[in-house]
Amino acid sequence: MARFLTAASLAATVLAGGDTPEQVRLALQGADAKGNPTGMNVGWYTKDKADHVVKFGTSPTALTQTATGTARQYFKDHGYHHFVDLENLTPNTKYYYQINGDKEVRSFKSAPVGNDATFSMSIFGDMGWLGSKQRPMIIKADGLEKNWTAVPTRVQQEKLFRNGDIDMVWHLGDIAYADDAFAHDVVGGLYEDCYNGYVNWMQNISSAVPYMVSVGNHESECHSTECVTDPFIGLSLSNFSAYNGRWNMPSKTSGGVANMWYSWNYGPIHFVSLNTETDFPGAGEEHRGDSGIFPAGKFGRDGEYLAWLEADLKAADDARKAGTGRKWIVAGGHRWPHGDNIKAKALFDKYNVDLYVAGHAHTYARSYKSCKAPACTAGGDPNATTTYLYCGGAGNDETDYTVAGQIHPNPTPGSATFATPELSSGILQVVNSTSLVWRLYSSMDGRVIDEMWI
Length: 454
Prior knowledge:
Largest sheet: 7 strands, mixed
Shape: globular
Strand content: 25-35%
Helix content: 10-25%
Number of helices: 9
Distance between the termini: 36 Å
Radius of gyration: 21 Å
């Protein structure tokens, strides 16, 4: 039985140690001839070396299949991250699995297929670990806030998950804010501790549904004192090494690169994860991480990322027009398109992207509705191709809780645009074969703050 991390036990995410698995997370993998996911990647962490083996099956008492994988260690003496692909899964089927060395038998449901499939997906960006009550802020400078929290959003995510409203998660970058860990302990090197704590904090959800991630600027490097003063430690934790070492997104099957850019299909939606941080002129970490000290970028050849993005969108739109593809195209990334990545906006129009979701701004904002749905009201733009959403208000140590924690009024019905600083996260739901609905949920009281149909 999965454990619910209540507000009273949020700080009790302790490393297991040795070869005991922790930080379990899932990600979609593989693709058949029609682009449907065919597998699930199981990832986990151990402090010491351990076998990367997973037993699985369709009965919790008959784990008749065995899969093996690989392990990564991007930072010496700081544990191993294991990844195993469970392949050739039957669509829309509940599977049970057990990691080598783990007493718990966990479960997940394999991806559905077809444009008539329905599901709900949690989307948010910029979520830190715990709050100022559990992790007091010692340094308040350069955007760091004394009063902050991500706890309400974590609790709200648990409620949605237990209610069956989360079949998948998409975290739009800035995961855990490990690079701000120095501000909670000036002397200690807490970068890895913070990242470990966050993934353990989310494990109740990430071990049961795919936890998909996009890259953000806070993934670029470590800013702790030991990282800045010790070149070995600093370089080990630079250029998105922890982000690429800890996650295993389906870049191989989509022609992407590492976890920096990739795409996947799920039911009637083609999802595209953009790289808003490197590998294009004007990117925030085009040459160096956001401290300006360590080198960053160059994950692909010059022009490779933007060429991949156009090819991926074109293929999805062509297949949709031919009647063989997904009904909707949803793109997402950490930031609003900027620099040469502003070209993405033109690509969204050219290839009829329905929705773009982003974080980075620690708030929520929605652009004009595309006005294609039964609930569309006055104020929408019937000519808009892509609807844009900022969904970065989950809570972190750069967001003042005394502002974000306030209860704000609901938007005016039919308003063309809407914004709120309230702590929140969203659910994108495929209602049926003709409708998508987006709902923004308050982390404070669970009410629906904003709703939009596509």
